[in-house]
Amino acid sequence: MLGVLFYAMAEKPDCEPTRILQPLSLNSLTGGTHITKDEEGTAIPCFFCEETFPATENGTKNPILAHLLSEHKLIIANVDKVANFPKYVRYWREKLSQTKDIKDYCVVINTNTAPDDKAPQEKFFMLTDFLPEDKALRDDLNNAKLSAILDEQLVERKDQNFSRRCLFCKIMFHGNRSQLFLHMAKDHSFNVGNPDNIVHSGEFLDLIKSKLDSFVCLFCEKGFKEWNVLKDHMRKKSHKRIDPKNKKYDRFYLINYLDPGKDWKEVQLEPEYEKEVVQEEEDEDIEKEWEDWIEEDALISFCLFCSHVDDDVNNIVKHMKEDHDFDINSIKEKMNLTFYHQVKIVNFIRKQIYELKCPSCLLEYKSKGDLQEHLKSEKHYNIPEDKSVWDQPGYFFPTFDDDTLLCFLNDDDLADENHNKSRSQTTAN
After folding, report:
1. Is residue 427 one of the residues assigned to a domain?
2. Which residues of 215-230 are buried (b: 16+ CB within 10 A; e: fewer)?
3. What is the DSSP string of 92-109?
C-alpha cells in the first residue's frame, strides 16, 4: 500500500508558523477507529464522490482522511479538535457541492515551489479553523457536545440511586457517587481526581474493575497471575493510579470536552509519565490487605490567596475568613449561589492567582511578591462585581487536581433533595 507522509504548515497573522496538521499515513489511517452510531446512519460520505466511510465520533484515524488526501487533495486541519466528525463532514459535503470554486472555503497549499525542488508542483486544499465559517462550525459542534456532557454529568451527580461496591474492599455505597470516589482516595490511596470532574462514572468504574479482575496493573497495564502479586506490584511501584497518557480514560474527564484535542493530564498539570525504577525486593508478606496501602501523608489544603497551607481544609477556610476577610459561605448566602457557582468562584480565583492576576481587578503582575503586595494594600481578596467575569463554563474545571477546597463546598440542592426524600418516607410510614 502506498505510504504517504504529509505535513502542512500555515501561518497565523502576526504569529510564528504553526503546525496545524498531524502527519497522515495512508498505512495507518485505516485502523484503530471507534465507530459510533450517528443519527443519520453508520456511514459518512466523501465530500466529492459516493465513497462512504465509518461514522467515527473523532476523525483522527478515520480512513476518509487518507481518501480525501490521495483522491481529492483535500486536508482537514486539526481534525482532533472537531467534536462531532460526522456532522462536520456532512456540513462541508453540502457546502462544497454547491460551490463552483473550492477556494471559496479552503486554503490553497502549493507544494514544491522552491527553485531547487525536482518533484512536480501540486496543489492541495485545506479546511481550517483559520477561516471564519469553519471556526464557527467547530465552535457550534464543541459547544453542543459540552452542553450535552454537562447535562449528563449533572444527572449523574444528583443520582441518588447509585449503588456500587468499593473496587478494593467489601464496603457498599448507596446514594451519591462521590462518596465512593472519596472513600477510595482516602482509605485506599486511589485518587482519580475530583468526582465532580468525572462523567460516564458507571462505565469508568466498570473499566477499572475489569482490569483489576483480570489482574492487570492500572498504570502500566502489565498482567499478573494472581491478585496478591498485582497488589504488591502496584504498591511497590507506586502504580495505584491510572496512567494520564492512556487515551482510554479521556472520555471520562470533563476537561477533555472543554478543549478538544487536549487531554486531562495536560490541562490539569498531571505529573510526568514515570518510568519504572527497579527496586530491591523487600522481605514483606505479599498477603497484606489493600488497606495497608493508605498513605500516611494527608491531602494538603491551600489558601486561595496566599501560600498558607494546612492538612485540615476547615482551618484554611477559617484562615481566609480571618486573614483575608473572604468567607465563601457568606458570599454564597449573599449572592444566593448554587453549588456550581461556588465551584466556579474557587476555580476562577485559583486560576487568576496562578497566572499572577488580581482576582478582583484583574491586573496582572510580574511576580508573586508584587501580586501579594497589591492584594494586601488594596484588600482585593474578593471577586469582581461583574458576575459574567467568573460565571463561565470554563471555570467548572479546577486549575489544580485534588483541590480539597472544592470538597468543602456545600451542595444545598442535594441536601434539600435528601431532606425532602427522608421527609416523604417518614410521612409515608
Report:
1. no
2. bebbbbeeebeeeeeb
3. HHHHHHT-S-GGGTSEEE
Cα angle vertex 242, ends 238, 244, to 5°?
110
Q: Which amino acid is located at 64 in the chain?
A: I
237 and 270 belong to one structural domain? yes
Residue where one domain finishes, among candidates 111, 145, 179: 145
Which ranges of the chain have pLDDT less than 50?
1-40, 264-265, 267-298, 413-429
As a whole number of angstroms, the distance between CA 412 and CA 245 comes to 36
Report pLDDT digits (tens) over 101-146.
888 889 888 877 777 767 788 889 999 888 899 999 988 888 888 8
Same domain for 13 and 123, yes or no, is yes
Cell numbers at 70, concatenated: 490521495
Q: Which amino acid, one-letter code, is at 183?
A: H
Same domain, 323 and 364: yes
- In a domain? residue 254: yes
Question: What region does 241 belong to: left with phi over 0, alpha with psi -120 to 50, or beta?
Answer: beta
**Beta strand 17-25 with 122-127: parallel, antiparallel or unpaired?**
unpaired
**Residues 6 or more apart from 190 whose CB is under 8 A from it?**
167, 168, 184, 240, 241, 293
Name the residue range of residue 305's domain. 301-422
pLDDT of residue 190: 84
Give every CB contact of residue 309 below 8 A, 6+ residues apart in sequence. Answer: 300, 301, 302, 303, 316
Q: Which string of b and e fits 98-129 if b means at least 16 CB within 10 Å?
A: eeeebeeebbebeeeeeeeeeeeeeebbbbbb
Number of domains in the chain: 3
pTM of the full structure: 0.47
